[in-house]
Amino acid sequence: MLQELVTLTGLAEGSPQSFKVRAYEKASLGLQADGRDLTTLSMKELVSIDGVGKATASKIIEFVETGRVEKLDTLRAEFPPEFVELSRIPGLGPKTLMLVRSQLGVENVEQLKEAIANEKLRELPGLGETSEAKISKAIERLGLTGKDRRTPIADALPLAERLVDDLLALPETVDAKFCGSLRRMSETIGDIDITVSSNEPGAVMSFVVGHHEVDDIVVNGETKTSFLTAAGLQIDVRVVSPEQFGAATLYFTGSKAHNIELRQRAIDRNLLLNEYGLMDASNEELASSDRPVVASRTEEDIYAALDMEYVPAPMREGTGEVTAAGGDGLPALVTRADIRGDLHYHTDRSGDGRSTVEEMVAEAAAQGYDYLAITDHGVDLAINGSTAEEMLEHRAHIAEVAESYPDMTLLWGCELNIGGDGGLDYDADFRALFDYTVASVHSHYDKPVPEQTDRLIAAIADPTVNSIGHLTGRYIGRRPGIEIDYDAVIDALVDYDVALEINGALQRLDAASDVVRKAVEREVKLVINTDSHHTSELGRMEYGVRTAQRGWAPKHLVINTWDRAAFLAWSQHRKG
Ligand code: DGT
Ligand code: CA
Ligand code: CA
Ligand code: ZN
Q: What per-residue confidence (pLDDT) applies to 576?
């Protein structure tokens, strides 16, 4: 709700920097950091949270008590979802967007495209042919058009996790899981599919119908409810009996291509696979509902009955996993339990970091990590970066904190900024002092492919660089990243033995899973990181791991699964 207030108020005020917008943003960060269940807090408790003022607190109370916020309803009426969506387009800030609306009557993507086709945008003050072309390209690359409009995973996954948690808390629920593209870790989601196991579907369905996320009911059946959220995202909830839960989650997780291959494998064994179970089909006389069930309660049972290894959900895309799982075997995939450290990690030494060194290190230690690289921004990242002097003080500070954590090796690192031409922060001698570095792109997103490729290769070739962070700099569905020649970049990673990051932030998931899979084929070293800027963000490691699995990443290529000695030796090897 607060995030929506941030966006809509930004539009209403014509600036994402306005006082009100920043107040909501601060409150949102404060609440996130606090972590308590908002619905249980009093006015007094709310305003005592860092960044939460009276105005925001009363909106939360209003929301908890009535399920609505009047201010938000007013803003929603003024800015319908199809208009708000336009604010995702790079180059269309709130001011420009409001201008486009008032001058050209543009209310949605279709009308915006039409205005671009008629060369209307370039005539507006502050815009020109270049910005018009840029906006046009961004619309294409964001995939905003038509009925196949999709929701970025960052907007769908936290919502699905909350819903599943709410369902699991229901006494009538035996088990619940989100399935579909979301469970497979697709970058964008058509709709959310949730499967619930229960013997009392009626109770589950009425709970769903009454849920506060429901804006509009599409299907209201005995075992299936489909509804729309206020943001227009569709959620399908199906209830099945506990005996059929495995078959149902297998079916609804898909992908369709994976299901089709599984079904063929079943047929080859005289079996029948559907959303109710894996059945013995040898007696053709029997009606399908009378066929003996071979397996259905768990996915594990079904894969086993098909003579296959269990296939982790992120791999289920019908791109060779069925053959591998039923034949030579799947790669020994990395899992969350294998991870021994985080190697892209900020503190409030970075302008955009929001927790102290002490807090961030304590949180990492609580994960049981063996090593941790603190990688605050280098000096080139304006506002957020630190000078050489500040970095040296920071090193001393980190060393001091490290004394309290004898079981964890704390590295003084840096997130180097890859400049427009591939240049890096500080001078080479200073960079060589860091224990570990991640180099990443934070600007110049629009250069042509050959220049972007050269730029990355220059950074990879630099002997002070250990890894490349968030490869393209994209924000899924919001900002297209840089376009590069992946094969050339992967060649360079191999040649210089530099690790490729899989960034677990849901907006990023960068490198993308298909790029990871290419890199895996070339045995590029990988590193899975959270890029945390706050103590609440360490959970991203799980998303990074799932993305790695989607890219078929085996444990042995992931450097932050290695034991301390092996990792430390590797991190120093380029320095000779
Ligand atoms: P999405 O929602 O477009 O991001 O993608 P999915 O994969 O979540 O697709 P969705 O929601 O249409 O259906 C959920 C799952 O149900 C899908 O992954 C596989 C299964 N499924 C749906 N339709 C079919 C079908 O016609 N044949 C088979 N074999 N499976 C299907
Ligand atoms: Ca779906
Ligand atoms: Ca669906
Ligand atoms: Zn970072």
A: 65
The CATH code of domain 2-142 reads: 1.10.150.110
Whole-prediction pTM: 0.84
Show the CA angle centred on residue 519, arms to residues 513 and 522, nearest 5°. Answer: 150
Q: For ligand 1, atom 10, which residue shows the shortest CA distance? A: 180
Question: 460 CA distance to ligand 2 centroid (A)?
Answer: 38
To which residue do tokens 């001091």 refer? 400
3-state secondary structure 117-157: HCCCHHHCCCCCHHHHHHHHHHHHHHCCCCCCCCEEHHHHH
Atom of ligand 1 nearest to the CA of 188: 4
DSSP state of 168: H
Domain 254-325, classified CATH 3.40.50.2000, yes or no: no
* Chain segment 420-439, per-residue pLDDT in tens: 999 999 999 999 999 999 99
Distance from residue 171's CA to the centre of ligand 3 (Å): 25
pLDDT tens sequence across 239-250: 999 999 999 999
Question: Which residues surround ligand 1 with Cβ inside 6 Å?
Answer: 180-181, 186, 189-191, 193, 251-252, 254-256, 259-260
**What is the pLDDT at residue 41?**
86
CB atoms within 10 A of CB 163: 20
Domain 151-240, CATH class in plain words:
alpha beta
Tell me the per-residue pLDDT of 258-273, one tens digit each, with 9 for 90 and over: 999 999 999 999 999 9
